[in-house]
Amino acid sequence: MTPREQAAFVAGIETARQMAMTAAVTIEVRDDAGELRQQAAVAALQGLAGGLKATFLTPPAEPEE
Question: What is the largest CA-CA distance in the chain?
Answer without folding.
Answer: 53
